[in-house]
């Protein structure tokens, strides 16, 4: 469908300043040509089967884009897509991933999934099983918006995530000056658990410097690029 498109936002290594992951973010082109951000329609789509169809399309389109880019001199580039609970719990996701990966010649390890904390509450045992099976396909698993849910710490023990993405509300400076304490602790904990850490919402270069000093190895945010069209992403990389 012509009215759906993906924007991509780069995730960078704070040590090498190289792009390591492109996160695919869904957009909808309104009839008047303007572009609606995901937040405007994802919640609504999540209440129906529409979300599964959207996610299947995203998976396929994002992997195809990554395959092209890897051939053009970015052999290590990975692509991350966001998935919703409905899709995980309905068995569609693992089926879709298997199908798309088997059709594509893309290297194992290219795909990452980002899941939010609210996701797995409904049926934790089943979700843990599905996530384990997805991981066995070589797919990376990131816990998105970390710190905003209700049982963040339990999630880390229970589910096979390899990366946590710290929610932007922890990354943005606060008037109480508690940012460094929380961030440092989250980073240390993640590392002790053998996970990598991505800070979301790094908006300025000083954010990036500070994050790096706290031991955070990856960041994503307006400081490094807003979500952009596939063409713009290609230009940025090349
Ligand atoms: P998310 O995965 O946590 O994505 C990050 C959101 O923060 C994006 O909003 C992005 O535009 C925004 N952002 C990035 N850097 C900065 C920054 O430096 N400052 C600020 N203030 N914001 C920043 P977006 O694209 O509107 O997406 C919102 C949410 O919608 C996503 O949160 C994700 O949970 C969901 N979403 C996006 N695409 C999809 C999709 O294809 N499928 C599903 N199921 N959910 C999606
Ligand atoms: Mg995300
Ligand atoms: Mg997030």
Features:
238 residues, alpha/beta, 10 helices, 41% helix, globular, binds ligand C2E, binds magnesium ion
Structure overview:
The chain is α/β, with parallel strands linked by helices and 238 residues long. It is 41% helix and 22% strand. The chain has 10 helices and 9 strands. The protein has helices at residues 42-45, 50-71, 85-89, 92-103, 124-136, 152-158, 168-171, 179-192, 205-213, 230-237; strands at 4-13, 19-29, 35-36, 78-82, 111-116, 140-146, 163-166, 196-199, 218-220. An 8-stranded mixed beta barrel has the order 1-2-4-5-6-7-8-9, surrounded by 5 helices. Strand 5 (111-116), helix 5 and strand 6 form a beta-alpha-beta unit. Helix 2 packs parallel to helix 4 (92-103). It starts with a strand and ends with a helix. Bound molecules: ligand C2E and magnesium ion (MG) (2 copies). Residues 144-145, 165, 200 line the site of one magnesium ion.
- Overall mean pLDDT stands at 90
Largest sheet: 8 strands, mixed, barrel
Q: Bound small molecules, which ones?
A: ligand C2E, magnesium ion
The number of helical segments is: 10
Largest beta sheet: what is the strand line-up? 1-2-4-5-6-7-8-9
Shape: globular
Taking pLDDT < 50 over at least 5 consecutive residues as the criterion, the unreliable ranges are: none
What's the Cα radius of gyration?
17 Å
DSSP strand (E) fraction? 15-25%
- Distance linking N and C termini: 28 Å
* N to C succession of SSEs: EEEHHEHHEHEHEHHEHEH
Number of strands: 9
Helicity range of the residues?
A: 40-55%
Structural class: alpha/beta
Q: Assembly type of the shown chains?
A: single chain
């Amino acid at each position: 469908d012509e009215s759906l498109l993906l924007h991509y936002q780069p995730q960078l290594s704070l040590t090498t300043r190289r792009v390591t992951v492109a996160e695919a973010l869904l957009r909808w082109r309104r009839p008047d040509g303007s572009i609606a951000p995901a937040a405007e329609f994802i919640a609504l789509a999540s209440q129906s089967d529409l979300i599964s169809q959207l996610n299947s399309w995203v998976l396929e389109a994002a992997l195809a884009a990554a395959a092209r880019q890897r051939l053009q001199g970015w052999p290590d580039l990975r692509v991350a897509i966001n998935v919703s609970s409905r899709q995980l719990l309905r068995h569609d996701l693992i089926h879709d991933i298997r199908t798309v990966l088997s059709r594509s010649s893309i290297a194992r390890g290219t795909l990452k999934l980002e899941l939010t904390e609210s996701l797995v509450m409904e049926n934790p045992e089943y979700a843990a099983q599905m996530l384990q099976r997805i991981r066995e396909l070589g797919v990376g698993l990131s816990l998105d918006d970390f710190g905003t849910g209700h049982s963040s710490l339990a999630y880390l023990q229970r589910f096979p995530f390899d990366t946590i993405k710290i929610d932007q509300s922890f990354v943005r400076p606060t008037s109480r000056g508690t940012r460094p304490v929380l961030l440092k602790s989250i980073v240390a904990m993640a590392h002790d658990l053998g996970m990598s850490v991505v800070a979301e919402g790094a908006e300025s270069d000083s954010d990036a410097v500070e994050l790096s000093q706290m031991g955070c190895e990856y960041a994503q945010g307006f400081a490094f690029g807003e979500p952009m069209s596939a063409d713009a992403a290609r230009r940025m990389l090349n």
